[in-house]
Fold this protein.
Amino acid sequence: MREQPDHEKLDLIEMRRQLTALRSKHSGNLPITSLLNRFLVKIAFLAEPRDLAHEQYLRSEFERTLTKVKEIAARAKSD
């Protein structure tokens, strides 16, 4: 998944596309799909961030979510 660069305006549509694709890829892994669904609900109806602080928060949550997905997937492979 492509992380959103800090210098570009946050593209929520692209973020939702990436999260949806990742959810499809891991559809058999309930912890991952639940994590992605929770974040998708947070951003589902946003047209754009309210302000710069909100944009930074969304970027950090997106990156944190991607990191957690990688960790969960790695644990699932090792089992």
